[in-house]
Amino acid sequence: MEIGDKTQIATGALAARYHDILLVAAGTTTGMMIANIPAVLLGGAVTRVLPLRWLRLATALIYVVIGIWGLATV
Fold first, then answer.
1. SS3 helix, strand, coil % of the chain, rounded to 5?
2. Does residue 3 have a pLDDT over 70?
3. Of 28, 40, 46, 65, which one has the greatest count of Cβ atoms within 10 A?
4. Nearest to 28 by CA among 15, 16, 11, 50
């Protein structure tokens, strides 16, 4: 969801700047597809090697560490 929000804001800003919403929307959509396809493929490859449970646990721990770090730096 976060990426979609930023992309929508960027698309609106670029369309306002360049006055061609169709071309801007096509460009931002293509850019997101180019950026996301490798991430999806890499994610699929990683889940074949590591158990999904471990990946979820690692992700949860990373978010906890980032949260604690964020609270500590406020």
1. 90, 0, 10
2. no
3. 28
4. 11
